[in-house]
């Protein structure tokens, strides 16, 4: 299946999708955040210091009267230089993920950590999802009926932290949605195959100790083929490989419907 087919199916069902985060378009605003090198307000200090990064985002949202900052799909981001996690390509681990035993632990699940392929010269910098920046504890809801595919605590620096992946079927087309940078409570008491109803609260934005050491936000990604991944899937790829990765992860705004759609050819 191609991204074009999945995108076509998603477009047909847009009126049916439930909001992923609470937002009132009649009275609230969004602000598109530019996290590329062209944003001269975002210094190297902001990027590497999570508290400074969070302060920057909060200041920008306050300045523009926005509830959330949003954006990032297909964005080439220099900010990933903040961590060596993005200097290597990732491959799925052979063992399935194991959830942390209790919220608040600095637990690294062996299956949640992907095997890192050494010796790659090109770092990963191209973002494959949409980020929604907002307060820790912000509710995350299922956009349509779902089944829990997998979940994990990906506890590397600048990784997803607590992560949930849901499976969906529309018109016989199967696909997945990934929710990264969640709270640890979000992945407690879950099990693979669990049914989730459209609109059900499935997670919340996590704090830095549980979300991969980021300012609070949601990474939302659409994935056609999960291949052998469980509890994890790359949200950032090498620029030279962008075509194949973007083909498997079409524009999340087809579901979110929070950003102005890009011009089509």
Give a description of the structure:
With 265 residues, the chain is of the alpha+beta class. The chain has a single domain, classed as Glucose Permease (Domain IIA), CATH 2.70.70.10. Helix content is 15%, strand content 26%. The protein has five helices and 14 strands. An eight-stranded mixed beta sheet has the order 1-2-6-13-10-9-8-11. Strands 3-4 form a two-stranded antiparallel sheet. The protein has a two-stranded antiparallel sheet with strand order 5-14. The radius of gyration is 17 Å and the shape is globular. The two termini are 21 Å apart.
In short:
15% of the residues lie in helices and 26% in strands. By secondary structure, the protein is an alpha+beta fold. Mean pLDDT is 83; it is low at 81-87, 94-119 and 261-265.
Spell out the blueprint of helices and strands:
Blueprint: H1 3-12, E1 30-32, H2 44-48, H3 50-63, E2 68-71, E3 89-91, E4 115-117, E5 124-127, E6 130-133, E7 139-141, E8 146-154, E9 161-170, E10 173-182, E11 195-196, E12 201-204, E13 217-223, E14 236-238, H4 242-248, H5 253-256
Parallel strand pairs: 1-2
Antiparallel strand pairs: 2-6, 3-4, 5-14, 6-13, 7-12, 8-9, 8-11, 9-10, 10-13
